[in-house]
Request: fold
Amino acid sequence: KNQVEQSPQSLIILEGKNCTLQCNYTVSPFSNLRWYKQDTGRGPVSLTIMTFSENTKSNGRYTATLDADTKQSSLHITASQLSDSASYICVVSEEGNMLTFGGGTRLMVKP
Amino acid sequence: GAVVSQHPSRVICKSGTSVKIECRSLDFQATTMFWYRQFPKQSLMLMATSNEGSKATYEQGVEKDKFLINHASLTLSTLTVTSAHPEDSSFYICSAAPSRTYNSPLHFGNGTRLTVT
Reply:
């Protein structure tokens, strides 16, 4: 069964600090991995999408990494801001566009 | 950028009534749209995949007669919750992709908060 596990489930950091969120998956055959940010009560917004051959991709202060051999991805947030408080969801797609969602990491940035 | 519009954003209805939620792709044609359900503090759960001009594909455990999906055009899919009950109260989100290619971006609507009293 395809699975996407995210850790930690929740995280509290101080404004200005960096943090790293983890995503491990067992999806096969792998097609791509996406990170989304979801503000409370809103739909998810795409941060990055990476295919098998991509190791890292950045979007502003967000940097995602992918190790397709170990089936692990991370999302690094630099110099966190209060507006970064949200849920971050890792979504892994297998060939044929079947998506498996991770449980998300709830990040709270405090002043 | 691509936009997916979902309407209404919030709806309160009485038990036993039906509610229709619309999902529109505003600046692209979506051959495939997805419907999700999200409970508080949980991730999205895929309910069904909606393909334009054909029947939707429902995930295991999702009642197709209760959650009616219609994808009549390349820019509109609707989800109708029939004979709603309080346990149907949830956050419903749609998403749409411009094409079926494996790395096609997936755009989400802003969700519909359904409360059944």
